[in-house]
Amino acid sequence: MCLILQLAIAETAACGSKVGGRFQMCSAIASFAFKDSSRVKSANYIFPLVQMIDWSSVLGRSTIVQGSIGPNLEGFVRGLELRHYASALAAGCAGTALGIVEREPYGALFLFFAAIMFIKRRRVAIAVAVLLMVACTFIVFVHASDSASLTRPAAFLLSTLAAIWLMSIWRSRTYAEQSLNEAKLIVESMPGLGWATDAKGNFVYVSPSVIDYVGKNTDEFNQAQRTGLEAVHPEDTDRVTAAWLTSMREGTSFQSVHRIKRADGEYRWFQAYGKPHFDGIGQVQGWFGTTIDVDEKHRAEQRLEDSERQLRTLIDTLPVMIWCASPSGEPTYPNPKTLEYLGATFEEIKSDNFGVVHPDDVEGFQSAWAVCVEEKKPLSLICRLRYNDGTHRWNRITAAPLLSDKGDIIEWYGTNVDIEELHQIQEELRSNAERLRLMLDTLPAFVWCADPKGQPTYFNKPLMKYSGVTLEELRGVEGSGFAPMISRLVHPADAPALLERFEQSFKTGEPIAIKYRHRLATGQYHLVDCRARVLRDSRNKLSQWYGVIVDVEEEAQAQVKLQKAQHQLELATRAASLSELSASIAHELNQPLVAVVTNSSATENWLDATPPNILRAKASAHKATDAANDAAEVISRIKALFRQSGGSKKAGNLNDVVLEACTLLRERITASKCDLRIDLEPNLPGAQFDKGLILQVLVNLIQNAMDAVSTGNGAMRLLEIRSRYKDGTIQVDVEDNGVGLQDTEKIFEPFYTTKHNGMGIGLSICRSIIGTHAGKLWASQSEKSGTVFSFALPLSGE
Amino acid sequence: MSHEDHKAVFVIDDDKRVRDGISELLESWGIDVKTFASAREYLDAPKAQGPSCLVLDVRLPDIGGFELQAQLASQPHPPIIFITGHGDIPMTVRAMKLGAVDFLPKPFKKHELRVAIEAALERDRDALRERSSLHELQNRLESLSTRERDVLPLVVSGLMNKQGAAKLGISEITFQIHRGNMMRKMQADSLADLVRIATKLSIPITHSRYGN
Predict the structure, then answer these.
(1) Torsion A357-A358-A361-A362 (CA) sign
(2) Interface test with B, best of A601, A616, A620, A623 (most B CBs within 10 A)
């Protein structure tokens, strides 16, 4: 019994050792599965497997010596064939035969074990065995006394031994089958393709997952004699074959990552791991292996690798200088572009970080960098770096620290950007701006800018000096626009007009061109010409006003002088033309007068003669009368030159006449740059008048007004024509903002004029025309420093 | 009026009333008047002998008064009295310098015209007389023989007979004969008289007694 037990333990140990060996392989799979949390089911296997590893390794060690006694599990499993039983069966059969000869029942023992072994159904076998045993026992005890020859004990012993042997084999087999079943279960439930080959590489086992995946069973694999390499992706075949052959030749582990074709033709990445097992003398017995689907992992790794490579390529090929530095600021990595740009090796930069910085910038850079390292804040500065051709180029250096959770610097990352061109452009811009400023400050003109609200934003130096103000003084209260500027710098008389003009322009954006009296730093006023235009942005919104002011005082003075000179010249010319006119008038009158004088003298002579020649005297007297009549005719003709004869009066609307007068004078008004305003009462009653004459009066008055504003230096030339129904009469006013009049009554006297080119008879004619219409013409001072000429006509009914 | 000779006044004025008036007045004074509306008309008309004068308007249609005066200046012509409706001092000075008798602004008084016309006619009468005496002297000069005409300037120049004879390459006696004849033909009573006549005839003094 003791021997049986020993054998059993030995077999168990051998079995455990082998199973443990396989479990070690499984542990690799288990650890992989453990990492992948998505494979929860796989993880469930881990605990028992790990436990078994411990158990098996302990067992394995304790049974190393005994390991050689029992056959290996695989050998055992494969050896469970008839030949292994042959000797036991032979012994059993011999014992049984002897028992039959000796008519002993021991042969039944063998039959009993054989029944147990070969009858697959365990309970039936046991029942048959127990039955046989009881029968044998009965036979032995019934017939024990019959004979005591040597053959009987020999037969018993032989049968018993055979029985125990068979028993032992059967137990082993049963155990092995059980283990195998368990192992198969483990192997087949593992997430991988399990396989085993013999020493030549022929499959002895493939797990069902292999069959599932590749669609071939062991035999089909072995037909090709290629250990399943035909399922490997053609691109991987050579590599895998080489690895496999190497492993076979050298008896080392086989490891490979390759693609295997699925039954449906798709390739997936697998990691194959095979381990050889050796027999007692170190000969390779075969291989156990597993091939695990690592497709996703491999692809993920591939992607990671790709992205890493891309990143590296990106960093190395970017036309940007990128570098890293240690927390203390020493360079740790410059990308190739940086090295190429600087024309230095990494070692050179490492040894002297600031060697590539322009000597003038080193100090600033060092101190700034030190501050940044100290305070762990990003760096951004501009300095000149040595370019690979030896010149220095401007670079913007920016760096930021990567901070740990604790706030310590892990690494600095920085970039250098060549801004040489930009810097040059900036320099150019700066010098341009400087030049522009110089130009603006040197120009003999006053330049100003204002925002769209009219707030002054810039006065050039000459303008500030000229006006004795600073820009700040003019800004005034927020949002007050140009009002403080105007009240401060513009003559009070011009201010309202200017304010109005500015308001209009700033609202509509139309250019400003206006003359006004500008207050100087000395307190004097000079006439200036102010012009401004608005700059619109891309959306056509007003963005900035640009204006110039030119002092035209001297020009204006010169103009006045010129006008005076012209006036004198005109006076002289007028005198000349008057004398011409009077000469012509004299000639016209003198001719008949000569005739009168001579004829009347002749008459006298004829009468004085003795005897008096009455006939001739009569004739002469007649001629004298004719000549005198001629003279009278001349006089009346001259009078007619200056007098308007009354035309026909018709009912009409004075507004129409005003508009017609303006139309007639449109060109002159435009040329005189007068600001003409017409303010007509819409429902003006009709009046009786001679349209031609009234038109002449209006034309005369408008012309006078234009002459009045043109002689003044005022920037604004205002001309306003109004019609009103007032106090039962229709009144028309023609107002100007010219120089005004000294005497509003004397101007109506004939031959009185304030103009150098007038005869001084226009207004007197106008008054007589209005007089013939039973109306009134008068002049008065205007509120705007000029003159208003008004005439009133009665309504048509009166 | 005391003169028997036939007096005439030419009036040029484009104004008929003026022409007629002046004509009427002058006729009442018994002066013959001829009127013209333009200078051209006057120039084209035949002129009668006897003292005359021109009453000329400054302003005329085709040829102006001053222009006509300038045209007439190169030949003997009746004295001019300008009349004008608008004369001035420069105009007057210019006219007077060119020999106008008077410059009357219109309207003139009748006696002003009369005085001017009298003066003009008197001057023309003198001029006529002057012109006729010169004509007489010229006739005398023309009556001289060639040799006598040669002798005349030498005598007027004051050469002695001997010198004059030497100049002409003739004898002194012959020279004296020519001189006597010449003096007689020229009706000169003395050498002084001859010199006066020679001056009138514009005979130049070509020689000197004391040599050139």
Answers:
(1) positive
(2) A601
A192-280 CATH fold:
Beta-Lactamase (3.30.450)
> Coil, strand, or helix at residue A372?
helix
CB proximity list for A122: less than 8 A, separation 6 or greater: A116
Say whether residue A602 is in contact with chain B using an 8 A CB cutoff.
yes
Class for domain B144-200, per CATH? Answer: mainly alpha
As a whole-number percent, the residues of chain A with pLDDT over 70 amount to 76
CATH 3.40.50.2300 domain range(s) in chain B: 8-132
**DSSP calls for A9-46:** HHHHHHHHHHHHHHHHHHHHHHHHHHH-TT-HHHHHHH
Q: Minimal Cα–Cα distance from B111 to chain A, Å?
A: 10
> Which overall architecture, per CATH, does domain A563-642 show?
Orthogonal Bundle (1.10)
Q: Report the SS3 class of residue A276.
A: strand
Number of Cβ atoms within 10 Å of the Cβ of A258: 21
The answer, for A596 touching chain B at a CB cutoff of 8 Å, is: yes
Closest-CA residue of B relative to A607 is: B28
Q: Is residue B38 within 8 Å of residue B60, measured between CB atoms?
A: yes
- Assess A124–B contact: CB distance below 8 Å, yes or no: no
pLDDT given at position A147: 53
Instruction: List, by residue range, all CATH 1.10.10.10 domains of chain B.
Output: 144-200
How far does chain A reach from its first CA to its final CA, in angstroms? Answer: 167
Å between B141 CA and nearest CA of chain A: 49
**Subunit contact A594:B22, Cβ cutoff 8 A:** yes
**Contact residues for A303 (Cβ-Cβ < 8 A; gap 6+):** none
Q: Check if CATH label 3.40.50.10330 holds for domain A318-425.
A: no
Residue A679, classed as helix, strand or coil, is strand
Q: Could you state, in chain order, the average pLDDT of each consecutive group of 10 residues for chain A (798 residues)?
A: 34 39 36 38 37 36 36 44 68 76 67 67 69 68 58 67 73 75 76 81 82 81 78 87 87 88 87 84 83 86 87 80 85 86 85 85 88 87 88 89 86 88 89 88 84 83 86 68 81 86 83 88 88 86 86 85 76 60 70 88 89 90 89 73 59 88 79 84 86 81 82 72 89 86 71 52 73 86 84 78
Summarised one tens digit per residue, pLDDT across range A341-356 is 888 888 888 888 788 8
- As a whole number of angstroms, the distance between CA A622 and CA A616 comes to 10
- Tell me whether the omega of the peptide bond preceding residue A71 falls within 30 degrees of 0, making it cis: no
Question: Cβ–Cβ of A594/B107 closer than 8 Å?
Answer: yes
Whether residue A591 and residue B18 make contact (CB cut-off 8 A), yes or no, is: yes
User: Could you give the count of Cα atoms lying within 13 Å of A640 in the half-sphere of its Cβ?
Assistant: 6
How far A641 CA sits from the closest chain B CA (Å)? 21
- What architecture is domain A443-551? 2-Layer Sandwich (3.30)
Contact check, Cβ <8 Å, A583/B86: yes
Count Cβ–Cβ pairs < 8 Å, chain A vs chain B: 81
Q: Distance between CA atoms of A413 and A428, rounded to whole angstroms?
A: 32
What Cα–Cα distance (Å) separates residue B65 from each residue in A293, B96, B101?
141, 13, 14
Q: Name the residue among A596, A597, A606 with its Cβ closest to that of B28.
A: A606
Homologous superfamily (CATH) of A650-794 is Histidine kinase-like ATPase, C-terminal domain (3.30.565.10)
CB nearest to A623's CB, from B24, B27, B108: B24
| A contacts of B17 (beta carbons < 8 Å) | 591-592, 594-595, 623, 626-627, 630
Q: What CATH superfamily classification does B8-132 receive?
A: Response regulator (3.40.50.2300)
Chain B interface includes A475 (CB < 8 A) = no
* Whole-number Å distance between alpha carbons of A325 and A327: 6
User: How far is A295 from A293, CA to CA, in rounded Å?
Assistant: 6
